[in-house]
Amino acid sequence: IILRGEEICSPLTIEQAVDSRDSVAMALYSQCFSWIILKINQKIKGKENFKSIGILDIFGFENFEVNRFEQFNINYANEKLQEYFNKHIFSLEQLEYNREGVQWDAIDWMDNAECLDLIEKKLGLLALVNEESRFPKGTDFTLLEKLHSRHSTNPYYVKPRVVDHQFGIKHYAGEVLYDARGILEKNRDTFRDDILNMLRESRLDFVC
Questions:
Q1: pTM confidence score
Q2: What confidence tens digit (pLDDT) does each residue in 122-134 have?
Q3: Distance, CA of 109 to CA of 32 (rounded, Å)
Q4: How would you classify the pairing of strands 6-7 and 174-179?
Q5: What is the CATH architecture of 2-200?
Q6: Which one of 46-55, 82-91, 192-201 scores highest in mean pLDDT?
C-alpha cells in the first residue's frame, strides 16, 4: 500500500496468499482463453452475412458428495440452458404446430421457471448472496439464516433437517445440497490493487 508517498508492506496469511495466487491463476487463464478465441475469430471470420454455427461447451450438471459455490453456479447455468431448450424445443414448436394445424401428440415437459425464479429473481438466492457479501459483518452463517428465513416455504428450496451448513435446490435434474461455507468469500473474490497493477505492466497483450 502506498500512502502519502510511503510504501507500506503488509504480510499475508497462508490462506490469503493461496487466495491471491489462485486469483492470479484464474485471471491469467481467463485472459489467455479470451485472447485465443479473439485470434481464432480474427483468422476465420468471413463476410458480415457469413453463416456459422456456435458451439457452447460448459460443465454438465454436477452433484457431488460436497457441492460448493462452483457447483451452484454451474447448475444455475444448466438451468438456464434447460429453460432455453424447453422454450425452443417444446413451447415454441408446439405453438407452431397449432398455428399450422399439424396433428401431433402433446408432449409433457418439466417447466423449470419457478426454480429459476428462486435463484435469480428479486430477493432470490443470488440477490441474497450479493446483499450479504456487501455487509462487512456478513458471514456464511448469517447468509444461511436469511436463505432459510426467506425461502424455506418455497417448494424448490430445501432446508436440511440435520446438517446446519447446507441448503438445497430441487433442480430439473434432481435435488442438490450445497455447502454454504465459503460462499461469501468466493463471491467477494476481488483482485487486490497491487496484483492488478502488476499485471497491467506486463508486455504481453493477453495479460494487460
A1: 0.73
A2: 999 999 999 999 9
A3: 40
A4: unpaired
A5: Up-down Bundle (1.20)
A6: 82-91
